[in-house]
């Protein structure tokens, strides 16, 4: 199942990105990580998910082998680690994108270290890893830190959302 989700954008985006793996995390502190609290409910904010809330609002990864997105708009899932430098740099960019696109998309964050079963289900081996979920197609993923301009291009071309 995990390889099904990381096909479309992976080859295109791999060479352009930088990211963290468990092997290169030494010395990075979790200070100043900009993440949205789990209780965030406004649609114009990035929403933090755990495994249970992910299964409820995105996809029941434990009980379904066929992709069945539960959302009502395209989404981006950011799998991050608190110690990851590129994840810390990506967090405010995702907040900006959520604000700019408003209720046309939803951006979620998943702490992959606290939600290891969920991260494993989607083949997360480096941070950040993003899952891009269009409304009527299979999702695709990218690993590493992508610039805001590249994320905007993906939102507009793959997710088919404009500002």
TrEMBL record:
GO terms for cellular component: cytoplasm. SUPFAM superfamilies: Thioredoxin-like (SSF52833). Keywords: Disulfide bond, Electron transport, Redox-active center, Signal, Transport. CDD domains: TRX_family. GO terms for molecular function: protein-disulfide reductase activity. The keyword Disulfide bond applies. It comes from the Bacteria. The keyword Oxidoreductase does not apply. Residues 24-160 form the Thioredoxin domain. Residues 1-22 form the signal peptide. This is Thioredoxin. It comes from Geofilum rubicundum JCM 15548.
